[in-house]
Amino acid sequence: MPAITPGYLYTFFALIAVSSILLASFMDYVNAIRLSSEIRKLKDLMDCVAAEATKLLIMALTTNVSVETCIQAPATFGRQQYWLALRNDSAKAWLEGGFGDTPAEGGVLRVFLSCKAEASGCYVSGYGAIRLTCFTGATLPRIIISSSSQNGW
After folding, report:
1. Using CA atoms, how far apart are residues 139 and 116, in angstroms rounded to an integer?
2. Which of 7, 21, 41, 101 has the most Cβ atoms closer than 10 angstroms to its Cβ?
3. Nearest residue to 39 (alpha-carbon basis) of 71, 73, 82
4. Residue 23 belongs to what H/E stretch?
């Protein structure tokens, strides 16, 4: 039985180390591509919801009526659940979005609405369609985001 020289063993271990490094870097690259795709899809959905919210706000301001609409949304992006929340301060209103099942302050993405409004509510994916409700308030129009499965819709 021939003896295995240490040079062959060192070469074998070096190949294992290099292949492990390459495999780990390829896996990180694939995860980065997947995450950027999920963020892009969330951004597209947020643009659609913000446009619809702006349309409802303008309709409520001009006609002084209450309006409600539903937007179909995917349950997840990839394997990630997401959330959307409407927020406002004294100067502007915006739509925030992020990944996870709990809305957090300062989400991953933020889209500002073109109308000044009182904004509130949140939507967590997987629980029905996105429901936007808009009505005129005392001083500003009010817009609320929720799930269509809430309040018996």
Report:
1. 10
2. 41
3. 82
4. helix 6-63
